[in-house]
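Archive maintenance. Older records in this collection stored only the sequence; we are now back-filling the structure field for every entry so that each record is complete. The fields below show one back-filled record exactly as it appears after the update. Entries are processed alphabetically, and NB-ARC domain-containing protein is next in the queue.

ARCHIVE ENTRY
Title: NB-ARC domain-containing protein
Organism field: Gossypium raimondii
Length field: 110
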Amino acid sequence: MEEILSEGKLSEVAGVIGIPYSKPFLKLETLHLFDLAKLKSMYWDALPFPCLKLLHLHGCRELKKLPLNSDSAKGNRLSIEGSKDWWAAIEWENEATRNAFLPSFKSVCA
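Back-filled structure field:
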């Protein structure tokens, strides 16, 4: 699996069930991703995750960008768990976004 949700697939599903697709994951609270060695993308754009409390990633070394916008870091309610090496390789939109999520990161064994 290289991508969790593509723009094309999301618009297709949204059309079938009759809902707008601009902001998926609004009620997502916890996301665990394990041993997805080929995963490169969760979503093609930065999104608000107003309810997300835990994002735990293990064995997702190809995932270099997180689909989080800076609103997801407000209040430090989000915990991002992963290896130090993975975290160091994350590509951020800018330094301010990286700094906003830095307090959210918790290193776990690789």
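Update note: The chain has a mean pLDDT of 81. Strands lie at 30-34, 54-58, 79-82, 105-107.
Entry marked complete.
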